[in-house]
Write a structure and sequence with these properties.
Structural class: little secondary structure
Number of strands: 0
Largest sheet: none
Distance between the termini: 25 Å
Number of domains: 2
């Protein structure tokens, strides 16, 4: 089974930071989609130690090796946005 991005509000360029649709003027979530859906032009894929929630914290899986640009299997996003 393939993994795909959903045609939902979280992947739509009309979603504002406050989770309000620019087209319809209502608060929405990832459970919604509409006929005016427009896929975001680019999705951010910046996964490395500096974007990890655990970077320079006690719960870092690899504190001796963690450095900007590196990646590990325990990466967790430090900020999530739509």
């Amino acid at each position: 089974m393939a993994i795909r991005l959903g045609n939902n509000c979280q992947n739509c360029e009309n979603l504002k930071a406050d989770k309000v649709c620019k087209v319809h003027g209502v608060e929405v979530s990832g459970n919604y989609t509409c006929d005016q859906f427009e896929m975001k032009a680019a999705l951010k894929d910046d996964r490395n130690c500096t974007t990890c929630l655990r970077y320079e914290r006690e719960d870092c899986a690899n504190p001796q090796h963690a450095a900007p640009g590196m990646m590990c299997a325990s990466w967790a996003p430090n900020r999530v946005s739509a």
